[in-house]
Amino acid sequence: MRARWAIAVAIAVLLLGRLPAGRCQGIGGQVNPPPTAPLLLQLQSTVDRLTRNIFPAVKDNFGFCIKDPQHDWDHTFNYTKDLDFLGDCADRTPDFSARLCTAAEVKFYFSSFIESGGKTSYLKPNKNCNSSSWVSGCEPGWASSVSPDVNVDLQESEYIPLRTLDSQPCCAGFFCPYGITCMIPCPLGAYCPVAKLNGTTGLCDPYKYQPPPGKPNHTCGGADIWADVDHSGDLFCPAGYYCPSTIQKNNCSSGHYCRMGSTYETSCYKSSTCHLNSEKQSMTIFGALVMVALILLLLIIYNFSDQILAYRERRQAKSREAAVRIAREAVQARERWKAAKNIAISDSSESPQIDIGDTYPRKNATKGKHMHTRTRIFKDAYIEIEKEKVLQQEKKNLTLSGVISMATKNEIRTRPIIEITFKDLTLVLKRNKKQLLKSVTGKLVPGHVTAIMGPSGAGKTTFLTALAGKTSGCQMSGLVLINGKAEPIRSYKKIIGFVPQDDIVHGNLTVEENLWFSANCRLSADMPKANRVLIVERTIESLGLQAVRNSLVGTVEKRGISGGQRKRSSSLLLLRALRREALEGVNISMVVHQPSYTLFSMFDDLILLAKGGLIAYQGPVRKVEEYFSGLGIIVPERVNPPDYFIDILEGIVKPGTSTAAKSNQLPLIWMLHNGYNVPPDMRNEVDSVNASFRSGISSDRVGSDEDSGDADVWGDIKGAFEEKRDHLEHNFSKSKDLANRRTPGKLKQYKYYLGRVFKQRLREATTQAVDYLILGLAGVCLGILAKANDSNFAVAGYTYTTLLGQIGALRSFSLEKLQYMRERASGMSSLAYFLSKDTVDHFNTAVKPVVYLSMFYFFSNPRSLFADNYIVLLALVYCVTGIGYTFAICFQPGSAQLWSALLPVVLTLISTQPKNSKILTSLCYPKWALEAFLIVNAERYSGVWLITRCGLLAKFHYDINHWALCIAVLFVYGFVFRCIAFICMVILNKK
């Protein structure tokens, strides 16, 4: 409050100081004649000239609340349009210029309020009004004059003239404060008539003061105070009226509205209803129209985009169907030609020699040159697929390698060879020292399909995860060699595929879209489109996904294809497809649970893990029964061998003979059988193994026990720190790219990501509509409950506005963490992923302010412009979206929602407390949003509102010139938090 009155002092002194110096000197006891109209115009001209001389001082000292001094002076004290009140005052009191307050008196008037904190309108004693001298001019609404021989300089800021003569009521259009004996012109937007005594209340209406008791000749005077609206609301032109001058009050006519402090009436929009004396126009209908227009626009955008996607899908389906038809006809024609050729060859042996060519006639051969490119690409792909199918049917006894060789004319495309050798691989959790894998030795051979089997908890998934280099929080010992070299497996991440147990495909994409995205981002950038089409179509055909290729995969909430189709389609089809990849040199390993004998026999190699992470067998599938039969473990008839071996390792089934090896001895027997190193804690069991099972054991492999190392002193604490360190090393360590595949760059991947995210957003239209509906309802509630209040420039409503918009941004990243980690591990660009999400979210950033303001603005009806509010809210939504990204990436969904709801409340409370540290407040983004909202409203308040405006800005330490700065800071905050979110996304690789 003190700040508000301090500002009022300075503003009033400077603005009133622009009035010309008064000279009032009587001649022969006569007063000066009343001024004429030309004299009043000359007076106004003098005021204008004086104004230009003090503009710099006003701007330098009070620039925080005065943006344009000329504009504010014109709207506060420029009486050029109506000088009648000056003439009336001159007619009533010819020495009126001698009754005007000097700068010193104005300063004294406002400084008294500073000391009282604005709690009282009584002024401290002064030269003219004190305990020994109290003339009628000291009473509220009255003024006195100076001696005729005194020259009054209105710009005198130190000396208060002796003014105690000829006390009279204050002129209309002026206000005379209690405790001083001079008049101050009322600002424009005020209504300052001469008061009339209310016989009922005893007050001088329309003001709140009373005539002094015991003075029957003392009548009501003029206005008595001008301060902020809370202390001098009676001075302001009432709402529903407009005051073209400070002595004239007119009813606001129908079709117009007049806010408090208006100097003119404002026309209402044609569709709104404005009755006589309307304070505001009803703008609810406009909010509804804006909302309807926005809904129609969004429907057009979504439907148009959906139609484009559907049209593209129809064209592709049409091209694909045409290609399938052409391919089948071509293959059938080829087969007929081959059959005819074979018949002709057989007949030629019994008839004269006939020259038979090696090619068959092609129907409409020239037509292919003009065939549509898309159809031709599909045709070539399906011809290749159909040829493989026919050959596989004809040559059932031929290996699949031979089938592919014949179908491609002996041209089998080879892949980079990756052979993985592991020796004494041991994996121990750092926190509790639990052993997950123990002395695992063997190799994964390129061109083979390896099955990894074992009882539950044997470490099958852990084993594959360790080989893929995806373990963290574990201490791994032993040796893993890639092609005989100690190279990190991540050097080959561009050509390695890792399929975890979780469903991590995108549920709001179709089967084909998921495959195409992976093909576009992971296949070589130099690969022709025809080859990519062949790979995708062969995958769909091989897995039997033709019927569901255009179906959404689905999520837990929204049903799509079945779980089996989501992961693997048919196991038999999957294994056949993988064997085809193995023929090209791909090293394939998979965890298998209870396969049928048919599937089991299709694998090349088998790794059988026992409990404790130990290998019980590793080698060809065809030799596994032979190996175990040598240990006395013979598979009974009509029992599936893999199931029987797992039951043996589980301990559920006992071997049929007493001489058979025990289940707990199988890992040790395997080590001894192959001459592997035996762990120290298992060496005391070597002697218990039957000698017949220990053929070829080398004594130097057994040795003596060794010290296993000191106990872990730090325990779980040390393990936790080491786990965090492993996370950082895993995310920041860079390895040389040895994959020899140039995948698409970041810009190209950004394009693919952008298309994917755009499709996902289109399919989430219902969710987006719910978000917009909630935001619109919030705007209605806040617009109704937090009505725009002139006393605080609608600050309350905007305070609640800063709490919105953050939770909706969490959905962008919180729902796809697993998918992102998988894509990142395969070498895809994190930057392209992040930027694509943010780019598509810009649509929401632009639309959400319109949705909210279409309700809030037209229900609360503030004085600021819709466009100004939109710009501020746009910057605010951009800012909080970046913060939402950070929470979504750093926390789990529940915690992220809690933070998104709690943080804005805390920061808003800090921002709205003037007593808080200025530095702390400046760090809170709601401070900048509130300041921007307050500025766009404060600029619409002038004239009689000037003191209120400056006081409110001073209270919150805001600056009217900082609107652009506030917008810039909000955008900078949004950008900085996006950078933080991206860094956290790269660093935090949570499971």
Automatic annotation (TrEMBL):
It holds the Pfam family ABC_tran. The keyword Nucleotide-binding applies. SMART domains: AAA. The chain crosses the membrane at residues 283-305, 769-786, 792-813, 870-894, 962-988. It is found in: Membrane. Residues 420-661 form the ABC transporter domain. The keyword RNA-binding does not apply. It is a multi-pass membrane protein. InterPro entries: AAA+_ATPase, ABC_transporter-like_ATP-bd, ABCG_dom, ABCG_transporters, P-loop_NTPase. Residues 349-371 are annotated as: Disordered. Keywords: ATP-binding, Membrane, Nucleotide-binding, Signal, Transmembrane, Transmembrane helix, Transport. Its main location: membrane. One of its GO terms (cellular component) is membrane. Residues 1-24 form the signal peptide. It comes from the Eukaryota. One of its GO terms (molecular function) is ATP binding. PANTHER family: ABC TRANSPORTER G FAMILY MEMBER 28. This is ABC transporter domain-containing protein.
